[in-house]
Structure formats: structure tokens, C-alpha cells
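When time allows, look over one protein, given below as sequence and C-alpha cells. The question is which stretches look regular and which look disordered:
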Amino acid sequence: MKDLDKLNTPYYLCDESLLKNNLEILNYVQEQSGAKIILALKGFAMWGTFPLIKKYLKGCTSSGLHEALLAREEFAKDDNSLEVHTYSPAFKDEDIEEIAKISDHIVFNSPNQLFKFKDRVKKINSHVSLSLRINPEHSSSPKEIYNPCGIYSRLGTTLANFDEEVLKYIDGLNFHALCEQDVGALEEVLAAFEEKFSKYFKNLKYINFGGGHHITKKGYDVEKLIKIIKEFRAKYDVEVYLEPGEAVGWETGVLVSSVLDTMHNGMDLAILDTSAEAHMPDTLAMPYRAEIRDSAKAGEKKYTYRLGGNTCLAGDIMGDYSFDEPLKVGDKIIFEDQIHYTFVKNTTFNGIKLPSLVILREDKTLDVVKEFGYEDYKNRLS
């Protein structure tokens, strides 16, 4: 698109048509299984797309007060049927009252937290639903940094720490054990969860299967997921929730950057106007190699470069990539699939400019929904 050439890099570009395709898959799961799917804001929070998303999904799940406020203000403000779920590893006294006012469901991480806050939140909002996060102590998460059921995990209540007194006050149980995984991983976790906790399901209204379900990835067995949910609902007479973030934003857009300089120091190097550290943090934390359009692995094409970010961190490196032609200043470098778990984690390290947020609408018009500048850096400091 010619209009894209007029945009200053770096910027994230979300394609609304691709997002809609994902939402239709998720909605199919809802319709066929009877489950409710809600958007996990920790993975995708481009609220300029919420008018589209809320046509399909049933609400949002948030990880504390600020995400809950965003969910209430921008997703569920004008529709009481859309739900706001709020979880935190530990709620703060100064936040809990506002959280109670704006949440439909509050998920406590431990019996201690539930007993501490249950009376306060019910006094403020008698309709709020309470639940407890469970650690089923089983996960096949690909990386330990993203394993909520790993050894010594602080996330969720294990069977050894479960207090049956909570059953008097809760409507549901939640577990979250997956990380961009297929339905087979869910099947394994669900078996462990049922073995340990199904004796407590009798009077519950719902079970939340958490996130990490890679439902919109090519090859995911959607029909098997539907079957598992339907059988679980029938077996225990409960509602089922899923709360993916990455499955919503999966392969819906890119991060576009430009080459600022090239040099040679034992190998060819290129400096970009973006940053792995500040703009693509999961590529370093996971770690994983981001795909670049029209590139290949080092040595597979004629010209190989090590791509680095425009910060002073020596390790701000995207990796080694090869291209058909030599890179030159001004060339666009397009990182694929950079919409989920990217801008929600961005920092202004080194004062580097945050990438703009751009949406390619269904009618093919470009909507620059947010541009960032000096004030965004300054206002985070004092």
C-alpha cells in the first residue's frame, strides 16, 4: 500500500481483516461448545480494535486495576452482557474497592487473599462473582519463564494448600497452565486438574481453563477442543471460560522498521530504528527468532546481516538474517507476527521512541490510532 510508505517507522500495523478471521474461529468454538471466550488484555490490548472484538468475545480478563479499568471503559462500558474478570497474584488494599466496583468476576490467587477481601468486595458489589486460581501442578510449557505450574510457583493454589472453607464463598475455579500450546497439552492439564480437584466441583457455576490455547494457529485441532469442552460441561454441569490473548492477536500484524546504518565488524551489521529490548521483549525473554519478511536464515541467501536495535545495550540484537540484496539505509524491515505480547510490554529504555500503533481497517483505510513522543518518555519519570 502506497499510504504505508508515508508512515514514519517504527510502527505496529494490525490488519483488522486478519483479526476478524481469528475472531470468527474463536466464535465458532463458542457457538459449538457453549464456552465463553474472553480477551486476555495481558496479551493484546489495542483498544482501537475493541469495537470489532466485542462483537465476538464475551468480555475481558485483566491482571489488576489498570487493565480492569481499560476493560470497563473501552470494552464493556455500554453493554452489561460483556464481562470484566480481574485477577492478581496479590491484590492491594488501596486497589480492591475500585476493582470490586468495576469487576463482574474477581479471581483470588490464594485462600488467604479470598478470606481477606471477600466481605469487602461483596459489600461494595453484591453481584460480583468470586473464584480461586488453582495450580494443577502439571504443565508442558515450552519455557520455564512462562510456566505458571513450575516448581515453587507463586501462581495459584496447590491441592496441599487448598482450604475447603473457600467453597462457601466461590462460584468457580480457574487454572492457567499453557503457553501457546495445542489441545493435547490442555488435555493433559485437564486430567491432572480433574484428578486433584473434581471432588470440589459439585456446587460450582463455572471452571475457567485460562489462556495459552493456540486456537487460531494453523493445525490446531479446533474440533477436539470443542469436544473436550462439551464433555466437561456435561459431566460437571458448569460453564466453561477460556481467556486467550495470543490466539486473538496471532498473525494479525507486523512491526515495521527502517535501516538507519550498516557497517562491517567481522560480519555485516545493520542498525534499525526499533529495538528487541524495548519493542520485542519476548524475542529476548522467550527467547525466539522473529520472522522477517523476504529474509532467510544466515547464509541461505546471498547477503547476511546481524540486525541490532538503536539502543546502547550490546545484547539488543534481533539475530542474523540473510537477504537477496545488500541492505541500504532507508530499507524497510518487516517483523512478522508482532501484535500479541509486544506493545503491551514496550518500554522507553534509552528514551527510544515507542512504535506508533496503526490499524488497517476492513475497508483498507489506514488509521494511525496512536503516535508516541518525548512526553511519553518524560511522563514516566520524575
